[in-house]
Design brief:
13 helices; 23 strands; seven-stranded antiparallel β-sheet; Double Stranded RNA Binding Domain
Length: about 575
């Protein structure tokens, strides 16, 4: 194999080359114009055929030898092209120190071995994570676990699951308490499986954003001008204006809300770029929702307390952490005082609503907030929310023969149905006797108290607010008051603002994503304007919009057309 060597004379290779043997044609350049029939600028109502330009060029063929002879007269050809029968030498690179060294062949292709694998690994991982069927499968798996979490009672003691999912009678033949406790389904939304799927879905969203959405936005933001009519005709929509100006087209497009850019005879216009950014916003909104949900599941506190009227409790004493990110705040030192508990009733006597008047006290005992809460009207303070969820009757204040008042504790009694019933007992006589007898008192709510004598016979009904005495077995009884207890649920949820922000952003970006990103290119070709465009949405309406815009472009006639033709010839 022979190599190119500048020190040796090349072999003659022109005899192997065949040139066209034909006389040179010397013809002048001819431009055929047209004579307009009108001399006014008017609106185009229909498209006219493009101008007919007949062009004849003079062609000459020069050999490298001729160019070499005229090198002193013209500098058009500066180097001689040499054709060789030999193949090109292999690529080489110098290695070693600056003084010189042996030549080593250049490695072709990508890296091999461990380093090549390390370089290719991120791309492969991104390609796998951004695979759409994988993301859809992740979402279905998360939805299935969420549905399973609503079916399985959450946060119960292990004995509860032993009894409900025994190994002797497994659900569907296989599901027992071992599945629940081993996989963490008793706290589904903080279980490793659920959090891992959320993390995997988040990684898929970020990979899709990085590999697909961001490159699309970069391409959409680039101002690219087309320099050939063939490229414009390949677009989804294309048309030509036989006698028009690209500047007039730009004015019309600007009036339609397009951003217009001109560069010589080329035009580029676009609108609806926000529609290209919207998918990125949708992905970020979904990430916010998942981050907020994870923060709520793993960083919250919960607590439940039943507090009688007039008593206090400290928030930190009743709160328990939910996940590994749960961190108490200064608000946990706040003391809550139940000022009053009362109810409203329907005409039928059923409870319609119950209220609790609460005061929040700091470490110095100073009231920092006071509010009356009810169902669906909670109290919020320092990231803590206190909900009104339940009620009970804690005690009765009773006068016996004008002595007292005595506080008699009320205990809940089990009855069929969802009705509540509370009872108490006032002993009469020797309380240390083996068979103590007394007066029984029952109450369904705070409105009225039903009394029974020592034999269990009905004695009467009294309202606590009436203060009317009743005579039972020679004892004068007065019901002074019925003291209620407020059932409160306390909760901290640091992820709620993040989830709300995510859903708000998701709704906004979803609406923005329906905006069409339309692009238009135009090229001034003599007196004609070649126009083309495309859009990512509303592909059926885009041609109609383009036709309406092109109909508004003024038509060039008479002197304007002559100047345009002169510019083309020049």
């Amino acid at each position: 194999m022979e190599f190119l060597n500048p020190t040796t004379a090349p072999k003659p290779c022109l005899p192997r080359t065949h040139f066209l043997k034909a006389p040179l044609l010397h013809c002048p350049f001819k431009l055929t114009t047209f004579s307009p029939h009108t001399s006014q600028i008017h609106r185009r109502s229909f498209r006219q055929p493009p101008l007919s330009l007949s062009v004849t060029t003079t062609c000459g063929l020069k050999t490298p030898q001729d160019s070499k002879k005229s090198k002193n007269e013209s500098n058009n050809i500066t180097k001689q092209i040499i054709l060789s029968e030999g193949g090109p030498p292999p690529l080489v690179e110098k290695s070693g120190d600056a003084a010189g060294g042996e030549e080593a062949p250049v490695k072709s292709g990508g890296g091999t071995g461990v380093m090549g694998l390390v370089k290719r690994l991120p791309r492969r991982v991104l390609s796998v994570l951004s695979y759409l069927p994988l993301a859809i499968g992740e979402m279905f798996a998360i939805a299935g676990l969420m549905a399973l979490g609503t079916f399985i009672d959450q946060g119960e003691a292990p004995d509860f699951y032993f009894d409900k999912y025994p190994e002797s009678n497994p659900v569907l033949g296989i599901f027992t308490w071992r599945w629940v406790l081993t996989l963490g389904f008793d706290h589904m939304f903080t279980s490793p499986i659920f959090l891992s799927l959320l993390a995997l879905l988040g990684a898929s969203l970020m990979a899709c954003t990085y590999t697909t959405q961001i490159p699309l936005v970069k391409v959409a933001r680039r101002w690219n001008f087309m320099q050939s009519s063939e490229a414009i005709h390949k677009l989804g929509f294309s048309d030509s204006l036989p006698r028009a100006s690209v500047q007039d087209l730009g004015v019309v497009l600007m009036g339609a809300g397009y951003e217009v850019f001109l560069k010589g005879p080329s035009l580029y216009a676009f609108k609806g770029l926000a529609g290209r950014f919207a998918p990125i916003g949708v992905h970020l909104a979904m990430l916010l929702i998942m981050v907020g949900g994870t923060l709520s599941a793993s960083g919250s506190f919960k607590g439940t307390v039943m507090v009688p009227q007039g008593l206090n409790f400290v928030i930190g004493d009743v709160m328990r952490p939910i996940g590994f990110l749960s961190t108490p705040t200064e608000s946990f030192n706040t003391e809550v005082h139940v000022n009053k508990f009362y109810m409203n009733y329907y005409d039928s006597g059923e409870v319609s609503q119950f209220y609790t008047d609460l005061s929040l006290l700091d470490l110095d005992g100073k009231e920092v907030l006071r509010k009356t809460i009810s169902v669906n009207n909670p109290l919020r303070y320092g990231g803590i929310t206190i909900y009104q969820t339940d009620w009970s009757i804690s005690a009765l204040q009773v006068l016996k023969d004008n002595e007292g008042p005595f506080n008699l504790a009320m205990a809940p009694l089990k009855i069929n149905g969802d009705k509540k019933l509370y009872g108490s007992f006032l002993p009469i006589g020797d309380v240390n006797a083996p068979n103590v007898k007394g007066i029984s008192m029952l109450a369904r709510d705070l409105q009225s108290i039903v009394l029974y004598d020592q034999e269990g016979k009905f004695a009467g009904v009294r309202r606590p607010s009436s203060k009317l005495p009743i005579e039972i077995d020679g004892n004068k009884i007065v019901i002074v008051d019925a003291i209620g207890s407020s059932g409160l649920d306390l909760k901290t949820d640091p992820g709620v603002p993040v989830v709300y922000a995510g859903f708000g952003a998701l709704m906004l970006t979803t609406c923005i994503s329906f905006l069409s990103h339309s692009q238009i290119w135009a090229l001034q070709d003599g007196t004609a304007v070649i126009v083309g465009g495309k859009t990512n949405r509303a592909k059926g309406e885009f041609p109609e919009e383009m036709n309406r815009l092109l109909d508004r472009v003024p038509e060039l006639v008479n002197s304007s057309l002559s100047r345009q033709s002169d510019n083309t010839v020049g």
